[in-house]
Design a protein that fits this description.
Helix content of chain A: over 70%
Distance between the termini of chain B: 72 Å
Oligomer: heterodimer
CATH architecture of chain A: Orthogonal Bundle
Mean pLDDT of chain B: 85
Bound molecules: adenosine-5'-diphosphate, magnesium ion
Strand order of the largest sheet of chain B: 6-7-8-3-9-10
Strand content of chain A: under 5%
CATH class of chain A: Mainly Alpha
Number of helices of chain B: 19
Low-confidence stretches of chain B: 1-16
Structural class of chain A: mainly alpha
Low-confidence stretches of chain A: none
Radius of gyration of chain A: 22 Å
Radius of gyration of chain B: 25 Å
Largest interface: A-B, 23 and 30 residues
Shape of chain B: globular
Number of strands of chain B: 17
Order of helices and strands of chain A: HHHHHHHHHHHH
Number of strands of chain A: 0
Structural class of chain B: alpha/beta
Distance between the termini of chain A: 65 Å
Chain lengths: 288, 418
């Protein structure tokens, strides 16, 4: 009675392995191609970020924060945080992290926003995707590393792949919600004047859903950033790897500095994208 | 053989007079709900609305609606909330798909249209004004007004010019670059109206456009709409739940209840012969009709002709004062008759030289002490305005059909507003 009967065991792991090996043998070339393209893109983005002179980045961030947050001292604070990261000696690692996050976010948006649109336009699609998104949200982020590893092995590519999968749900969800929340009276009026489906999307639905989509972008970016440490376990270089190494070697000070750098990056990105989203909301006013 | 027979029957099914109507609706049903076809096929067709809801779980919104609207007519759909007015007017543009029935616009069955033709219809022929405005909150007034032109693919400069015209027509000059949310309700609806006019449609659909506005603004907008309609001569189909508004605006009124048209007629007909308790109540309630006298509501005529004037002079005067008809009096202001512009023209073409040849010598008349109530039957039996004469037959003033209704409506509104 203390032993669970062997007969009732389900060989799920065998099945999954079988599916994966089938995928890899039959679609292996596809994964290779995708992996190569992704790697190329990553290298370009990384090179771009590393080529940026640091004063330019600091000034740019300060200016962007000032413009979006509306106060000059917010700009100064954000620029200051960036300076602190540099002063820890982590400038290069921070840029690498930014490169990974940026690539992952751009791809997440490029896939997630269209998916959100499709979801908003079809109740059937919504009812099939929604449970998947819900499930993804409850899964621990480590889980995403497994398929990434299986498809792409170790390195930058699986790290970005896992980050994309992990970070995509919010932007899908909020694009869908934003479009569905557009007042039906406005949509009806646009249709009554003979809008085509695309015209409705670009003239009415997307502009009115923009605040919601901006919130989605903000959340997706934050999730991508939070994946950085975990993704470093399978080969992403940058601040995450630094934290990971510090933990392994029990170097508290080093871990603290690297961790703090990630937090600072998070604050900067969050504040700026958040302010952008809020400003969208304000210009649209109460809707109607 | 088969084919030729089919052609003949098609032609027979589309009689020529269909083309004469701007809008014609034939046997239109709308049942909301997944089992709507069962309702249409089965015995439930004749069942009451409640019964259909109970047995099939469907909402019957429209039952066997048929009517025709002439070109340039102002047609009003009137009924209490839930009577199916919005559903009906949306079926005319297929914003809601009818369950059964046909809608003809300019003689074409729009239910058989494919997507592209339907889009063309919406872009060029028919536009709509909504109760809740439906303006784009992120676009300025002028961009809202130009929306219909933009989706046609009209270049920016041209569409702004036309939008600007429409904006001036509705009296919103100077507000072009504001966002709709910074405008009052009345002004937002003006934007809605301008947007509908900008595409220069033949047919204007209006679903309770003034219901959300306060009474003063509402009355003003009604007056302006009447004036606009006089000038532009569009076919207007106007939905309202307000009988006074219906009487004031409509050439003809269709009164709806529970998805059916229970009465269709001119305002006069509806007042004199109400088919429904709701209408009857109003008419009985309409005390002004029992109190107001002809002398109280009569007006100075815009134009009075004298019997010795020649037809050419009379025609010229009618034309320059933009009147269709005028009463003709003698030197002592005795009423002699009434002339219409058209008949004068014919007379001139025939070469006659006396105004008498063009005159109708028995125009409708009344005395100043007659009650407005007594004027209804007179007004509904004649195309002319009514002449008010004293006991000696001297001409005192004129009463137009519209004046009769307006007098009642205004009195009523003043009461309800306070
Ligand atoms: N989308 C819908 N689904 C189900 N029932 C509807 C729908 N739209 C309208 N109805 C019903 O149809 C009837 C007529 O509604 P409507 O045309 O809006 O009336 P009105 O405009 O005269 O107030 C009402 O009983 C309403 O509840
Ligand atoms: Mg309605």
């Amino acid at each position: 009675m203390y032993e669970f009967p062997e007969a009732l065991s389900v060989p799920l792991s065998d099945w999954v392995d079988a599916v994966m090996s089938w995928l890899l043998t039959n679609w292996g070339t596809l994964f290779d191609a995708v992996g190569k393209a992704l790697l190329q893109m990553l290298l370009y983005v990384e090179r771009f970020f590393l080529l940026l002179p640091w004063p330019l980045v600091v000034a740019g961030v300060g200016l962007a924060a000032w413009r979006t947050l509306g106060k000059w001292w917010s700009g100064a604070v954000m620029a200051g945080l960036l300076m602190v990261i540099g002063s820890f000696g982590y400038w290069k690692l921070a840029m690498m992290t930014l490169a990974i996050v940026t690539s992952a976010v751009v791809i997440s948006l490029a896939i997630g926003i269209p998916m959100g649109i499709v979801m908003a336009r079809s109740d059937f699609v919504e009812s099939t995707i929604r449970p998947v998104l819900d499930a993804m949200q409850t899964m621990p982020s480590f889980v995403y590393l497994i398929p990434a590893l299986m498809f792409f092995g170790l390195g930058k590519v699986p790290a970005v792949f896992a980050t994309i999968i992990y970070a995509m749900p919010p932007v899908i969800r909020l694009t869908n919600v934003g479009i569905r929340q557009v007042p039906s009276s406005v949509v009806e009026a646009a249709e009554a004047f003979g809008s085509s489906s695309w015209q409705l999307l670009f003239n009415v639905q997307l502009p009115l859903a923009r605040p919601s989509i901006m919130v989605g972008i903000n959340q997706t970016t934050m999730m991508a950033l939070s994946m950085v440490v975990i993704a470093s376990m399978i080969g992403a270089r940058g601040l995450g790897l630094e934290v990971l190494l510090a933990i392994n070697r029990i170097e508290v000070g080093r871990g603290f500095e690297a961790g703090l750098s990630i937090v600072f990056l998070a604050i900067i990105i969050d504040r700026i994208t958040h302010a952008l989203a809020a400003r969208q909301q304000k210009t649209l006013g109460g809707g109607s | 053989m088969e084919e030729s027979r089919l052609e003949v029957s098609e032609e027979a099914e589309t009689p020529r007079d269909v083309m004469d109507y701007s809008v014609e609706v034939r046997g239109l049903w709308k049942v909301f709900g997944p089992r709507s076809n069962e309702v249409m096929d089965g015995d439930l067709r004749r069942a009451s609305k409640d019964e259909i809801l109970e047995k099939a779980g469907c909402v019957l919104a429209l039952r066997d609606i048929s009517f025709q609207v002439e070109r340039g007519e102002f047609f009003v759909l009137m009924g209490l909330s839930g009577s199916g007015k919005s559903t009906l007017i949306r079926c005319l543009l297929r914003l809601i798909e009818p369950t059964v029935g046909k809608v003809f616009i300019n003689g074409e069955d729009i239910c058989s249209y494919n997507k592209a033709r339907l889009m063309h219809l919406r872009r060029h022929t028919v536009s709509m004004v909504f109760q809740h405005f439906g303006l784009l909150p992120h676009c300025t007034v002028i961009d809202n007004v130009a929306y219909g032109l933009k989706i046609r693919g009209m270049p920016k400069k041209e569409r702004y010019e036309r939008a600007q015209e429409a904006i001036e027509t509705v009296g919103l000059k100077g507000w072009e670059h504001y966002l709709p949310n910074s405008l009052s309700g009345g002004m937002q609806q003006r934007v809605g109206l301008a947007r509908a006019l900008a595409t220069d449609p033949q047919i204007l659909l209006m679903d309770e456009p003034f219901s959300g506005l306060d009474p003063l603004i509402r009355r003003q907008m009604q007056d302006e709409l009447v004036e606009l309609q006089d000038r532009l001569r569009k076919t207007v189909i106007f939905v309202t739940h307000d009988l006074y508004e219906a009487l004031k605006l409509g050439c003809r009124i269709a009164i709806m209840r529970d998805g059916e048209i229970i009465q269709l007629g001119t305002p006069e007909e509806i007042i004199t012969d109400p088919a429904d308790d709701y209408v009857r109540e109003f008419v009985q309630d309409a005390s002004p009709a029992k109190v107001l006298t002809a002398g109280k509501i009569m007006e100075e005529p815009e134009l009075l002709l004298y019997e010795w004037q020649g037809p050419k002079a009379a025609h010229h005067m009618l034309r320059s004062s933009k009147q269709d008809h005028a009463f003709v009096v003698s030197k002592s202001r005795q009423l002699v008759g009434i002339v219409t512009r058209e008949r004068i023209r014919e007379t001139i073409e025939r070469g006659a030289s006396s105004l008498r040849d063009a005159m109708d010598e028995e125009p409708p008349t009344c005395t100043p002490d007659m009650l407005v109530e007594e004027l209804f039957p007179i007004a509904s039996s004649t195309p002319y305005p009514i002449a008010v004469l004293d006991e000696n037959g001297r001409f005192l003033g004129v009463i137009h059909n519209r004046t009769i209704l307006d007098s009642m409506i205004q009195d009523r509104e003043e009461k309800t507003d306070v």
